[in-house]
């Protein structure tokens, strides 16, 4: 039959939610402390241990004592004859572990160990909570709202208390006491007052965990979430890809009649979710990311990692989204800067560019014609590789032309230098300020 002591330890363990062995270990450590206090101030260094019989509840103290011929202080010394009953080869001067349970140890223990036991049980309880949640960091957990405190929402998670800071709250949520919600266990901090659990409703990985719960194909690896872009409480885009042939990644996430995605939307209080198909071809991926708008063409600038997406005129506002939200989320999802243009804008730009090219070509032809009709003057290249023309030094010209004669043609705002009818230098003449 188990003792009352055993029952008491079991009851404490059950109430605190910690292993019974941990409670017993705490009590034994507390009794060691109580025995050391019993020894008085400044006792010599010695090993002490306490063992509690889980059935009878009897506490037995074992202390290390020095073997002597004549005992002066039985708290620290043991007679040679008594020591050899414990260890036959014991000699004077050696240390032997001897049972040293005081006659009134039960009363002493009860008085001195009470505070230590309570304190240590609290520490064990904190360690147990920390250990319980340490391996669950990054998981989704169901918690119950307790109260609000300075903008934080305090949640109950079994024996632990979690904090939902303002920046981790979703604008779509309303928190009231007793409400049960799913949260993302973002961080576990070990502080003096105990473990501090930080949870989030705005973290993008909350979306990932919800999909893993609702979509078996994601949980078993047939479908993979490649990237997530989220504006909490408003809208989220999720890019998915199939890892098994024949699996429809988008259809798997949406579910029959949209039941799977609707469950996630409900959990997030109607936050809009777009599921798009990921593609290794960045043009296709960017086009998919702008869903529900349809792209006509995607022009890439690999160096700047930017893209210009051409969409039909009627879909330009859809592609951009309210206050730029659709294109902003698509950019986050793909990692590319995206600029949206309508087909009319593109045609207008191309027309303007064509006109600009034609104007430039006409100007170049005019200059070429004028230069061909300009008067040719001959100049000798000086030792400094320069040519003097109209009171201006032009150059430097290639060193091999030093001493050679070159042809100079000038029109109103341009001077060209030729050698053997080959253009070797051209200069723009700036108008002098009046």
Describe the structure.
- By secondary structure, this protein is an alpha+beta fold.
- The longest helix is centred in the C-terminal third of the chain and has 31 residues, at 343-373.
- The model has no long low-confidence stretch (mean pLDDT 87).
- Strands 5-6-7-9-8 form a five-stranded mixed barrel.
- α1 packs across α2.
- It has helices spanning 4-16, 20-38, 80-86, 105-134, 204-214, 216-219, 249-254, 259-267, 282-289, 316-320, 325-334, 343-373, and strands at 48-52, 59-68, 77-79, 95-99, 140-149, 152-157, 160-164, 180-191, 194-200, 223-231, 235-242, 272-277, 297-301, 306-311, 337-342, 376-380, 387-389, 392-394, 405-411, 414-419, 422-428.
């Amino acid at each position: 039959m188990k003792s009352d002591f055993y029952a008491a330890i079991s009851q404490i363990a059950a109430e605190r939610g910690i292993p019974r062995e941990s409670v017993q270990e705490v009590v034994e450590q507390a009794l060691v402390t109580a025995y050391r206090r019993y020894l008085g101030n400044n006792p010599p260094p010695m090993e002490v241990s306490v063992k509690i019989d889980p059935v009878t509840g009897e506490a037995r103290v074992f202390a290390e004592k020095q073997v002597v011929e004549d005992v002066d202080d039985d708290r620290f010394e043991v007679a040679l004859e008594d020591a050899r009953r414990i260890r036959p080869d014991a000699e004077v001067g050696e240390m032997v572990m001897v049972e040293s349970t005081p006659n009134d140890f039960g009363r002493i223990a009860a008085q001195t160990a009470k505070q230590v036991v309570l304190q240590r049980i609290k520490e064990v309880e904190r360690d147990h909570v920390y250990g319980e949640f340490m391996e669950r960091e990054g998981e989704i957990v169901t918690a119950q709202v307790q109260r609000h405190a300075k903008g934080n929402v305090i949640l109950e998670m079994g024996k632990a208390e979690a904090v939902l800071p303002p920046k981790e709250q979703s604008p779509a949520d309303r928190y009231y006491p007793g409400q049960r919600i799913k949260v993302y266990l973002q961080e576990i901090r070990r502080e003096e007052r105990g473990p501090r659990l930080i949870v989030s409703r705005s973290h993008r990985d909350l979306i990932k965990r919800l999909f893993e719960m609702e979509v078996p194909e994601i949980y078993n690896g047939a479908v993979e979430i490649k990237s997530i872009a989220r504006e909490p409480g408003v809208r989220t885009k999720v890019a998915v890809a199939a890892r098994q042939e024949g699996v429809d990644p988008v259809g798997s996430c949406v579910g029959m009649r949209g039941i799977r995605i609707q469950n996630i939307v409900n959990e997030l209080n109607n936050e809009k979710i777009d599921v798009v198909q990921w593609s290794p071809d960045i043009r296709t991926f960017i086009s998919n990311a702008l869903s529900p708008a349809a792209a006509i063409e995607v022009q890439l600038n690999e160096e700047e990692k930017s893209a210009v997406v051409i969409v039909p005129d009627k879909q330009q506002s859809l592609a951009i989204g309210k206050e730029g939200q659709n294109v902003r989320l698509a950019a986050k999802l793909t990692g590319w800067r995206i600029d949206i243009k309508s087909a009319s804008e593109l045609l207008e730009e191309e027309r303007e560019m064509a006109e600009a090219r034609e104007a430039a070509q006409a100007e170049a032809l005019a200059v070429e014609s004028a230069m061909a009709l300009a008067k040719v003057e001959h100049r000798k290249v000086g030792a400094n590789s320069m040519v003097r023309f109209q009171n201006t030094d032009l150059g430097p010209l290639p060193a091999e032309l030093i001493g050679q004669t070159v042809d100079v043609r000038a029109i109103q705002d341009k001077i060209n230098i030729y050698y053997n009818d080959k253009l070797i230098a051209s200069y723009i003449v700036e108008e002098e300020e009046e």
